[in-house]
Amino acid sequence: MPNAAGHFLTAVERALLSLESWLVGPLRLDARHNIRVEIGWAAAYGVFATALAFVPVVLRQLGAPAGWLAFYSSSTYFGSVASWAGLAFFRPGQVKRRMTAMWLVSRGLLVLVALVSGYPGLLLLVAVFWLLEGLPSPAYTAIVQRVYPVEDRGRVMSVTRVAMALPMLALGPVAGWLLDSAGYRVLFPLAGLVGMAGALIFSRLRVDETALQVRVSGAPTGLRRLFAQDRRFTLYLVGVLLFGLGSLIPVAIVPIVQVDRLHLSYTAIGWLNLSMAVSRTVSYLFWGRMTDRWGGVRCMQAAFAINMLVLAPYAIATTQGIGQAGGWILLPSFIAMGIASSAIDLGFITAIIQLAPFGRVSEYAAAQAALIGARGVVGPFIGVGLMNLGVSQTAIFVLGTVLSLLAALVLMQVHVPGGREAELGT
Fold first, then answer.
1. Closest among 30, 119, 31 to 71, alpha carbons compared
2. Spatial separation of the C-alpha atoms in residues 225 and 217, rounded to whole Å
3. Do 335 and 279 form a contact (C-beta atoms < 8 A)?
């Protein structure tokens, strides 16, 4: 019996290694180790992110008005706004260790949700969480450039992102059920503990920290100089800005539509999140290969166009007489969101590596993160302001759809070689 069990485990190991080779191809030994580490921490983050997706709806159920929902949406970008200045914290030789420490602290804050009641306390904790969680993002881009070979970077990243998406696929309905039965003071602390475990797994990544070029010029002068010197990058950021505003202007209205107009339960939203997780999981593999073939900029352009399908169902749901159609009307939105989000997740990293000169990836990534953060802080309040001025919810979602179209058209003007022809991080 022990021999039979040993043969079975060996066969399973060989099957997994064959699957890994088919997905990512031949790689150096250290790169294979790093893929396995990233699969582990990405899977833990997937569990963690499944719970975070419910925060806006929980806030609305707790009585948070539209202005506070806009504040929460803005808070998710606090770390991005501060990332340019935050690069100074990640000194050569200590980048990975400081990233791990920051993630342990940020995710540990969610454990404290067990002690709070009401939306003000929850908002305070998650705002600080997002500030600390987002600061390391430019440093992570520099690590990705260092540890994965240029010709297979998109494909490798897609495999790790599939590992992140699979828990979302499995646990979306479970998280919704747990919220309905036990409440947010149980779900969010559990998610925080899993997130902390993911940070510890990430610390096992093999990377020469002394070789990481994480640097930045003084801000805001350095930002102005960068934009003046690289017009192509500036045009790319204009597209990113338009896309972000298109998504964020209506974002505070989304939970209002889900809760007040469609009367969706946590469980129903969990099933919709499941549909998004399925589409994201499948499309990660597609976008990984397309990123290697087309480059990150073109994948971002496609994602911006797909984002119009994310917003259109909400415009329909808010139309007079259609609002009571039920949650199924949002199903196309969630499916499109999964497809677009996987392309954007890979594209934000690979586009920067594609556009940045050698040795300046972290600087370009920080500039992108700062812009994303600035639009993220302002965008949700624009939507609430328009609603307070009497603009209909339908018109606000239509505005977001038009901005997404404009973003895709702007990126058509960003001229870059294809993914395999570009000097991606070489």
1. 119
2. 9
3. yes
Domains of the chain by residue range: 25-411
Angle at 366 between CA 99 and CA 213, to 5 degrees: 65
Q: Give the model's confidence band at 83: pLDDT under 50 very low, under 70 low, under 90 confident, else very high.
A: confident
220: cis peptide before it, omega within 30°?
yes
How far is it, in rounded angstroms, from Cα 239 to Cα 241?
5
Q: What is the pTM of this model?
A: 0.70
**How far apart (Å, rounded) are the C-alpha atoms in residues 386 and 268?**
29
- Into which CATH architecture does domain 25-411 fall? Up-down Bundle (1.20)
Of residues 329, 328, 310, the one with CA closest to residue 397: 310
Alpha-carbon dihedral of residues 334, 339, 345, 349, nearest 10 degrees?
-160
The helix or strand, by DSSP H or E, that contains position 86, with its residue range, turns out to be: helix 78-86
What does the buried/exposed string (b/e) look like for 286-322 if buried means 16 or more CB atoms within 10 Å of the residue's CB? ebbebbbebbbbbbbbbbbbbbbbbbbbbbbbbeeee
Structure tokens at 213: 């070029």
Q: Say which range, 257-266, 276-285, 337-346, has the weakest mean pLDDT.
A: 257-266
Is the model more confident about 324 or about 149?
149
For residue 76, give the 3-state DSSP assignment.
coil
